[in-house]
Amino acid sequence: MGQGQRLLPADQLPDQQHPRRDGGGQHHPEPRGDRLQLPVRQREHRGGTAAAGARDPGPPRPGLRAAVDRRRPAFPDHARRAGGRRAGGDPAGHGAGDRALHHRRHQRRALHLPHLPAGDRVRPHQRQHPQDRRARAGRRPRAAEGHLPRRAGTPGRAVKLIALVEELAAQLEAAGVSFGHGTTNAFDEAVWLVLWHLGLPLDELDLHAERELRHEEQLAARELLHKRIATRKPAAYLTREAWLQGVPFYVDERSIVPRSFIAELLADGTIDPWLSERTRRVLDLCTGNGSLAVLAAMAYPDVSVEAADISPEALEVARINVEKHGLQQRIRLVQSDGLAALPGPYDLVLCNPPYVNARSMAQLPEEYRAEPELALAGGADGMDFVRALLRDLPSRLGADGVLVLEIGNERENFEAAFPGLEAVWLETSAGAEQVLLLTAEALRG
Predict the structure, then answer these.
(1) Is the pLDDT of residue 352 over 80?
(2) Which residues form the Methyltransferase small domain (predicted)?
(3) What is the pTM of this model?
């Protein structure tokens, strides 16, 4: 497999569903970097790394999907009607003989309006309050009132999509929910829920921002948001769909919500300089819902992939995604406790293991507690699984094999646990402290 044999265009994915509704592995509860997995406002990934040494990764490779402009265009408020006064004299320009002084209503002066029909005319010594006419039953709105804005969410009234998104985002902020399972802020989460509910592509907010939503459409979107707030479950568990590098994946509570930085490295070709023409066998260890295994099979069409996890429930979800993308002939699912059932040898090992340290586990928000603890907890310093992996992996790696390992925000603990290990830290959208690469030579040295 060479550098020129990568195939991962999102618009040519097998059996891909309509892209309407992200987030592969786990993520530390304190997300780093301004990264979004959703294609709402996806930033452009930076390929390659300065630590590649003598191996030149070549020009940057395009990602799976064209990046979407991160800057959300402003939606200006409706211009106010100008009500300037005339220069000098009476602000309404009335002459000395004028009797209808509407502009002085706020002063509660007695107004005599001869043009009104009998019964509505204000007589001397009577006063006309500016809002008296609101109490008159049966009156139809006048033409001058037709432009007045309507309150969002009024039953039977149409509301623009962008107005509903802003309203729901404010509710998410007020409720204090936590993000990090595909989005990093309340606005993007609201966009996700509304566009997913309407069956619209998640990167087309601008195209549909002014669309007016019927009452039943608003109601269903609000119910989805209220469920998100009440249950504190990640949005991906409510929609049963997550996105990683523009690729849709099924997900439910049996597996962790996919959000691995390794997906970026598969998409932009950062790993390619460490691979060779002899690279044929790939292992995705701790596969979860199988998202990294699927992306690896898409990126490298001439390799076979083994996707392993200790959880049989997670492997059931992974099977759904393997079949969803038509990769049953190239991806083999294996239940294994670490490397116990995986003899190898492998040319490339991808691993997004449980790495959250005990102190962080005790402080996890409810959204992270909704995920399987087995996929998160990494022991006192987060390195329990990693220690066993680095101990057993050298015998499972080929001569030119490499390990790509994600450890979240645990670089300090990793370097303390393995002080003599020469790791190459790979650049991602969150910086160069989340994912590292180890060669077979470094592991055996």
Answers:
(1) yes
(2) 278-360
(3) 0.69
